Structures are given as structure tokens and as C-alpha cells.
Prior knowledge:
Layout: H1 2-13, H2 20-26, E1 38-41, H3 46-49, H4 53-63, E2 70-76, E3 79-84, H5 86-100, E4 113-117, H6 131-147, E5 151-155, H7 163-174, H8 181-185, H9 189-205, H10 208-221, H11 225-249, H12 266-275, E6 279-282, E7 285-288, E8 298-301, H13 309-324, E9 328-332, H14 338-350, E10 359-362, E11 367-370, E12 376-377, H15 389-407, H16 414-431, E13 439-440, H17 443-447, H18 454-471, H19 488-497, H20 500-510, H21 514-533, H22 542-563
Parallel strand pairs: 4-5, 4-9, 9-10, 11-13
Antiparallel strand pairs: 1-3, 2-3, 6-7, 7-8, 11-12
Amino acid sequence: xxxxxxxxxxxxxxxxxxQASEVLKLITVPQDTAHGNFxxxxxxxxxxxxxxxxxxxxxxxxxxxxxxxxxxVEAVNGYLNFFxxxxxxxxxxxxxxxxxxLSYGHATSNGKTVCIDFSSPNIGKELAFHHLRSTMIxxxxxxxxxxSGYRVERINHLGDWGTAFGKLIxxxxxxxxxxxxxxxxxxxxxxxxxxxxxxxxxSKEEPQLEDEARAAFTKLExxxxxxxxxxxxxxAATLKELMRIxxxxxxxxxxxxxxxxxxxxxPSVLDELREKNLLEKSQERDVVMLDEFDLPPCLIxxxxxxxxxxxxxxxxxxxxxxxxxxxxCLYVVDLGQxxxxxxxxxxxxxxxxxxxENMVHIPFGVILQQSEDGKWEKGKxxxxxxxxxxxxxxxxxxxxxAYINEKNPDLPxxxxxxxxxxxxxxxxxxxxxxxxxxxxxxWDSALSFDGATGPYVQNAHVRLCSIMRKAGYSVKLSEVNFxxxxxxxxxxxxxxxxxxxxxxxxxxxxxxxxxxxxYALELSEAAHRFIHNDRVLGxxxxxxxxxxxxxxxxVMENVLDLLGLFPIRQM
Length: 571
């Protein structure tokens, strides 16, 4: 569709009245195609040409040579309205889908690399429901960036270092739990969750436990063999469960370089900060002052010598630039960490690294759940009030399975399909919202097969697959009569198919998966409308219409995949 806009701009420039660059600024896509596929107001020309916009539009309509692929131009009340030749559009779009397949609309390689840091949960805890946002926003962005021509490095920066492990160690020893190899190997993350919650409760009555936790982490940093043994067991128990959940969700990573990975790289960071005279003392802590950026100091090391998130993030940034030579490095982390990333990025700036400008925080709102007293709030793992992601997935699966058992009890692999639809529903409920918005989670609305939901989108794809399955054959492009695909329902669907590349690019530039989620809804509505209005099987236009079904299914499948949804074929 963008090529049409450029062609219109070039044709209008050829009239001598206006520059192509100005046309591109003015041209719009009307919501109602009765006003054309593209429209340009002529009001800005009135002053220079000293004519009424209505007259200007009429004169331009007479003088312009229509680009190939446009059927007509109309001058209406000072606007130039351009109409696409429906048969031309149908032929060109469906031919390109045939050539490109699932990669239709994808960009060619641009030679650039993007690092995307997402999910990044804390070791020692189960994934809570609120971890869904970072995981699925980052997962979708990694797919969108790849489709936009980038080499993508997907990074899970595990929170596997820090005072939190001092808390776990203190609580584990306080409970006199066994420390033999067999017990530690059998340790589960559920048990660690209990320890976290227990520490939180106990420290309120015994504040000195916080000091004990800090001291324990310092010993861990110093290499205490026994504490390190406990830490490794906590890490292994958590990773086992994490990998299970990620596999279930269809999420993968290229690197699991958590905070501990950068432990041996921190001394060189500290040395560099000292050499560049950036490290200062503040209340016995090492800090980098950021007054010139109107930011609080970046805390590098505590008074007891232990490091912090910022220290490890600096080490990670330097490593990633050296290792991957990224053109862009994204941190998909909730809005509450905005200050932290400003401090880290501006510390890199003070260190003299111009590439700090390519470090980008991708913030997002939180998932809110309704408490017993009716308040919408975010659960917190450390207090044991968070919904666990595995429990939410299980509940979604059971609710969808009940629906399948009612509608199609003999469906093969119905448990797997129910799980995939359930996970897709949770994902879509998240991604359909602009990422900066808080998301209120409601079971009924998220799992409904009607409205702006994952199951509704899945159902559109399933219906397309069902028609193809019932047909029992596939149509070749040479068998299509494109004049049979020019009615309103077919045209609206084809017009949307044509915008896939534009939507991928927009989602990438805005770093906003909701652009594609809304596109999936538009496609679903158009597909449902086409199937309802234009009978496919048994019609005189069967082959042409079936080919459009095949093409729409191909586009839908890939859009669902780019969002991180499972493209279900039957339900």
C-alpha cells in the first residue's frame, strides 16, 4: 500500500502544482472506502495557487496521469480521492503471498543486531502471573524484530545474584533443612517460595535478619564454598521449573546469562570507573554522581562491599556490546524500573560510550487482579499473594477444555489444544493493550470466543483451516480468476492482507506488539465477514474464493506466530 502512496505523490508532482514530499505528508487512508483508498486535501494549495480548494482538486483530477493499479480519481469538496483497481490489487497481493508464503510482509536482512532482555525472573521464586507481561511482550518483540530484518539475540538476564540469596540461605539454615547432595538435588522451587514468604514474615518481627541476609550474600560473593553449594542448588531447582514453563508457552532464549555470569566482570567495571574518576564516596557507599542529568546518584557498591543491580547491569551492557556489537539493546522491564535504567544509561554516557543512546528501556504497566475486597492490585511473590503463572495456565486450560468437551468432545489431542488456546488467550489479553497500560485481568473476558479476545482470533484461523480441510484440495494461482475477488467482502479482506508488511514495520518502529494484535483482530473480523457473505465451497467462484481462504490462512498463521500465539488449526 505504501508504494501506491509514493506513485500518487510522483504523479501529482508531475502536474507541477505540488512536490511529492508534500503530498506524502498530506495523503491519508480514509476509514470509509466510499471516499477512496487514499485521499489528499487541497486546502494547503489555496494560498499559493490563489484558488478555491474545490477548483484546485478538480483541475488536478483532470491533469493527473493515474498510476497503474488505480482505477479512478474523484474531486470532492476540495479533496482528491483515489481508488484502487480491485482486480489489480487482488492479483498483486495474492501473487506475493504465493511467492513469500509465511514470510510475506517480512523485510530482508538489514545487517543490524538487536539484543532483547526479557522475562528475566528472580531465581528462587516461581514465575508469578505478573511475569507474563515481560515474557510475552519480549517474546513478540523478538519475533517482530526478526521479521523486520534484524538479527535478534534473545537474553534472559536471570536474577540469580544479590541479597535475595542471602535471605534464602539464612532462612534455609534457620529451618535446619538438610544440606546433603541428594536433598539439594531434589529441591523444588515451591519449597524456595515458602522460604521467601517465611523470611518476609519473620523479618518484620526480627529486623536483624535483614543484616544476616546481607552478611550471607557478602560471604557468597567472597566465594564461601558452602554458601555457593546452596546457591547452585537454588538456581538449579528454579531453572528446571522455568524451562518447563517456557517450553509450555512456546518461548525460547538464545542466552541465559544472568547476574551471576557477570560476577567476574565487575572488578574491571569498578577499575574503569576509578580510572575515569567517576567513583565517589557517599555515606561509605561507592556511587556515580548524576547531578548534571537531574538524576540521583547511581549506587555501585554498598558499604559492606557488596554490589548491586546497577553494577551488574553496567557489566552486562559492556559485555553485550563487545560480544554482539548490537545496534539496539532493549530492556523489557516494568515501568517501575525507569529510574534505574536512566541511571545505568547515563553512567555509561559519563564513561564515554556514545552507544548508550542505543540502550532502550521498554516499559510496561502491570497485570492487576481483583482481590477479595474488590480492589485491583498486583500480587507480590515475597508475601505469597501472587497468582502463580503455572496455576493460571492450568486454570485457563481447564476452562477451555470444558468448552471443547461441550462442542467437540472427540477432538484429537484436546488437552494440548486446550492448553495452547488458554496460553494464547492469556497472551492476547495482554498484547492487545498498549504496553504502558495496566491490564486488568478478568477470566470471562479473556477466554470469551466473542469480542477482542485470543479465542476469537484463533477461531477465525480455525474456520479458514476448516474450509481448506473440507475442500480436500488446494488451488494453484494459475486457476484463480481475480475478477471473482472484487466484491466488497473479498476486497476488504485482500486490502487488509496487503497491509501486513506495513503493520510489522509499525509494530517494530513503535516497539508495540499491540499494533499487530489489533491487526489480527481486523483480519479476523474481515475473514469471518468474507466466510459469512461469500459462500466458498459449492459456489461458482469456489476455486478463486478457496485460494483467498488459503492466502488469508497463511497470513493469519504468521501474524499469530509473531504475537507468540499458537496457530490452532482445529478446536
